[in-house]
Amino acid sequence: MAVSDHVDFNQFMEGVKRRNSHQPEFVQAVQEVAEDIFDFIQDKEAYHEAQILRRIAEPDRVVSFRVCWEDDNGNIRVQRGWRVQNNNAIGPYKGGIRFHPSVTESVLKFLAFEQTFKNALTGLPMGGGKGGSNFNPKGKSVREIMRFCQSFMTELYRHIGADVDVPAGDIGVGGREIGYMFGQYKRITNQFTGVLTGKGLEWGGSLIRTEATGYGAVYFLANMLATKGQDLTGKTAVISGSGNVATHAAEKIVQLGGKVLTLSDSGGFIHDPDGIDQEKIDWVKTHKTHRRGRIEDYVNEFKGASFHAGKTPWGVKCDVAMPCATQNELLGEDAKTLVANGCIAVSEGANMPTDLAGVHVFKDARILFAPGKASNAGGVAVSGLEMSQNSERRAWKEEELQQMLKDIMSGIHATCQRYGDQGGGYIDYVKGANIGGFKKVADAMLAFGVV
Ligand code: NDP
């Protein structure tokens, strides 16, 4: 096909929209990537001829299944479960499992698509996948959660494997749920293999996996600030979320000398002008994870803080911002407010928390903006290291892993610089991450022919 015969960006997106007409999150994720990739492949005939972008934007397979379980009152409940295996060009499918009522096939397809680029950026041999269910763990007893996890794995086990597809945790799925799922996998298959990551330390888990996403996102932020000769000392930070990613991001910011002003959950945000220090972060971790409490209770515990029901924290003046809760939680208007208030850097801890309008505001303002597929890759990177340790049947030391995580985040930053340098000191990290991730997967796909 001659270069002039190629479909243009609009035609390509029309096709994506037509084929995925009720999947807005997936279309949004493809559009964000395609905007950058179209420029990059303009003069690269091999990628066009092999229809690489079109192929990456069509999952290898989507498995959808029924999950039945019995609640504590003896009622039979029915949920829907999925595993999306997007692309395994550079390694086994890899990506988390999410339990949340907002989970749909569209959300999981967008996450598996993003994961493909993210995993490639880590430099480790991992393809992209994602799974989950519309099951709502909130308000469920521990026994109900166990029964649900077991039923979910009773179907999922036939689609995964240490060299096939290696799921991990995500929203609503932490160490406890991974334990229940691994227990059921082992019971069905009679195999103790590295089929899931995020496992407990006593049974094949890796040190620093829990902290890795939040810590990694802050290392990435520090790398970006360093390009401007700055660091986190004395900087004020606004963070959303109060789960795994948010609390560990807060912890690392405090360790590096910054002051965290906010945390949030789906009920609203808390603002603590005195700063959320390590003691307060520890309280939030226990309250949210073990007591399954609400962030608003923070104000009863720590004087001087205020709770803002139903609101996101982006109106609080800050130097740096980290959206760490969920997708599309930072919109165009929020981005304008952050920029107007003098925010100089945004590092996404969550997946696609900034909508397309917001991304364009940050790009136009030329502030330091790291997309999740680059900045939150620390979690999956340590998951990749957990897979290596499982294969080796060894556990590496914490110092080694801490250093590897730092090196991987610096490597991702360097890749983004390489492909995203726009001259004049401005790095378009979104473009850099999209192209860096795409190129690695695309080149592997070229080697395999049309499969
Ligand atoms: P958790 O379940 O530990 O925490 C999620 C947090 O986000 C909670 O505070 C939750 O509040 C809040 N939240 C969820 N949905 C909404 C909503 N619709 N509006 C406002 N707040 C909401 O999840 P994680 O911290 O693990 O994950 C957070 C994000 O990071 C997700 O986008 C995830 O995909 C991404 N991520 C996670 C990785 C990991 O290693 N854990 C790796 C890479 C990315 P509430 O308690 O009220 O539900």
In a nutshell, what does this entry contain?
By secondary structure, the chain is α/β, with parallel strands linked by helices.
Can you describe what's shown?
Belongs to the Glu/Leu/Phe/Val dehydrogenases family. The protein is of the alpha/beta class. Helix content is 47%, strand content 15%. The strands form 2 sheets. A 7-stranded mixed β-sheet has the order 9-8-7-6-10-11-12, sandwiched between helices. Strands 1-2-4-3-5 form a 5-stranded mixed β-sheet. It starts with 8 loop residues before the first helix and ends with a helix. The mean pLDDT is 96. Bound molecules: NADPH dihydro-nicotinamide-adenine-dinucleotide phosphate (NDP). NADPH dihydro-nicotinamide-adenine-dinucleotide phosphate binds next to α9. NADPH dihydro-nicotinamide-adenine-dinucleotide phosphate (NDP) binds next to α9.
Rg for CA atoms = 21 Å
Assembly type of the chains comes to: single chain
Mean pLDDT: 96
CATH architecture of the largest domain: 3-Layer(aba) Sandwich
CATH class of the largest domain: Alpha Beta
Q: Quick one: overall form?
A: globular
Give the helix proportion (percent range): 40-55%
How far apart lie the N and C ends?
19 Å
Number of domain units: 3
Biggest beta sheet summary: 7 strands, mixed
Structural classification: alpha/beta
Topology order in helix (H) and strand (E) letters: HHHHEEEHEHEHHEHEEHHEEHEHEHHHH
The parts where pLDDT drops under 50 for at least 5 residues are none
CATH superfamily of the largest domain: NAD(P)-binding Rossmann-like Domain
Keywords: NAD, Nucleotide-binding, Oxidoreductase
InterPro entries: Aminoacid_DH-like_N_sf, Glu/Leu/Phe/Val/Trp_DH, Glu/Leu/Phe/Val/Trp_DH_C, Glu/Leu/Phe/Val/Trp_DH_dimer, Glu/Leu/Phe/Val_DH_AS, Glu_DH, Glu_Leu_Phe_Val_DH, NAD(P)-bd_dom_sf
Catalytic activity: L-glutamate + NADP(+) + H2O = 2-oxoglutarate + NH4(+) + NADPH + H(+)
Subunit structure: Homohexamer.
